[in-house]
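quick one, two chains, predict together pls
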Amino acid sequence: MPPNEFVAVKFEPYGMKSEFKRGALLLDILRSVGLSVRSDCGGRGICGKCRVIIKDPSRVSAVGETEKDRLSVSGLKSGHRLACCTYLIHDATIFIPEESRAVKRKFLIEGTEKPVIVDPAVRKFYVTLERPSLSDVRSDILRLLDSLKHAYGLEITGIDYQLQKRLPEILRKAEWKVTVTVWNNSEIISVEPGDATEEAYGIAVDIGTSKILAYLSNLATGKLIDTGSLENPQVIHGEDVISRISFALKGEESLKEMQKLAVKGVNAVIRQVCRKSGCTTEQIYEIAVVGNTAMHHLFLGIPPKYLGISPYVPVVSGSIDLKARELSILVNPSANIHILPVIAGFVGADAVADIISTQVYKSAKLSLVIDIGTNTEIILGDKHDMITCSCASGPAFEGAHITCGMKAATGAIEKLQIQPKNYEVKYQTIGGVKPIGICGSGIIDGVANLLRLRLIDKSGMFVNRSPTPRLRTRNGGKEFVLAFRGKDATRDIVITQKDIEQIQLAKAAIYAGCYILMKRKGVKPKNISNVFVAGAFGNYINLDNARLIGMFPDVPTRNIRFVGNAAGAGARMALISKKHRRTADLICQKIWYVELASDSEFQTEFASAMFLPNKDPKRFTSLEVPSNPNLRAFRH
Amino acid sequence: MSTLVSALREQLLTFDVDKFMATVKNLIKDGFSPTEVVNALTEVLKEIGRKYENGELFLVHLVILGDMTKKVTTEVLEPLLKTDSRKREFLGRIVIGTVAGDIHDIGKTIVATMLFSAGFDVLDLGKDVPVEEFVRKAKETNADIVAMSALLTTTLPVQREVIEALKKSSLRNRVKVLVGGAPATAKWAEEIGADGYAEDPIEAIKVAKRLLGLSH
């Protein structure tokens, strides 16, 4: 056949057509039209990633030995071919399956703005080693490194020491066909028999003061496989960060105990998520960890003493990579643990993860991030600069120190509305069961409704004259009954005067923190394009109601978004993308920490923000605030 | 005097700091001496204390009133009091501060202001106050009470250190020690050998008076 003859090729699923010289290599023609396929080995017939499907085998060159080796019999039967080994002969239709496309894989993580390009620190390579012989007596390791270099052009500098001890048996049992796991293109951390390139898993862990969360992801695709959650076992030594630090300071043994508990919690949640998904802990090659600075230090066993004493400096702030076995984390023992950097004593890696997932650091528009917890971290900034602070908002929004408060779990009232005409309460519980308590979002709704219906005044005080039996006096204090014991609930579910006060204290700290950052940056609410609200609110928070009580600066509700666990999302991004790890390091170098307690205006702002929504009505001009600014209870 | 008291009360309970400041300035312009104004303020705060104890006022109000009173005393009254020929009679002298390692002073500042308004001569050392500073100032000013706040469980133990330092410098038998702050409790006060504990500014006034053998 004349070699210069042109043949027509159709590319599916793109529906694109083009003409090529007869005898051209499929890999080359795919590249020439911009349809790059994966080719980890550079077209040497080793990696088997450039798989395409050609239904009619007569259109292309015959199946060669390399393809027979790399492709399964059934694959070959259904037209699978390697683009690097197949030549065009006649007009043909080439189907490029999704897994072969070299377009960078992107993955969307809930709560994030844009898909993440998957670029994990851990990659797997399948290689066939030359068998040793009397004429080739290279060491096992050298043999392995040579084959990786030959097949993939990888310049590996090291191999995990513990792995070296097991290597000779693994290689021989696998008959020299193995999958090698490489960390950061530099170190071999695992060798396993056969082709296991698709089985690469990693876990993002968010060590919170109250909860430890784990996100199991496929490192090759970025896909989230399953999530796990567990109460932080350290809770037996105190609810908040400061009491944990205090306990750890009691002596070397106490610090060890705290670290042990953190490790125990992380191991348990990893086991939990692996069990759910059927993957083995051995297959976990990478872990990314975030947490507040105290949790970070305790997890690492670093003394947290100076976090608890002014000026509250951390021991270490940069990102850390270490072996899972060094911390007794029960995954693949050679797996790497990447711990994201922290910003300050009270602004930890969780806040860094918030910034990554909300992408504040690269936005041209000004954003405000509020991650609500016992300590609320606030970030204000854009791609030019960012400032941050932490405020002690207390655990009220997590249901603690609230009479009928509970975490966002089954049976919690998460949403409610008080009817203006008869003060009856419509509510929704998590799981749709009878209410057993009220969680943060429910309390916000409650206080906002009481304010809207003028059952409480601007200072949060219940009115003197009760228009409904639901507003009653018990044990010398006033309270509003959301659900009565009996047909509605197993006990009276109430909001007391004290509960309202707790919410006022918490939201005042948050608002005052936001205000101080805005003041430092010289901006007004109207300059803020986006407000991201993150935190322990379960699935829901009524932003209108949160605004009504003055929790956030006066930004229109349409510009406020609840993003759930933004720190977990950021940890997942750092797990599957090296670029985001570098971003995290850069964020920490760039961001400026503001100590609220040393700002002379904080006290006045805090006091002012204890009112609903604020003592200063000019702060909330866009809100429809009940027009009784005077405090009836004080009329003399 | 009663017109002064009611004028102050009315303005204070509007929770408007600017109006309150203006009112106080006007009262002084009208010829009231700063001492008279402070004494009237003391009366108002007594009423507020009663309301707080009766559950008519809450922490919210104490925080805001404390902040308002602080502004008025530091920005208007204190500078004038220094030059006032009619010396104010104090119930006693208190040295107050947040302990070393702790920079949280909203609560402490309110307590200091309330104590001042209640008739004490208060020297506020601020926050993150070194142990020796408490001792030195107590000695220098011949204080009757050393009052300490700590907002963190990590800094709470410093209260004990201050008491020990007072003992070492033989001051302990001459001053009473009053402690407070979120993690402090009456039991803690007893444990470290403090003379009193107060949960809020209103209680602080009561306890301070009791420690000095004064009636309410």
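DSSP finds nine helices and five strands in chain B.
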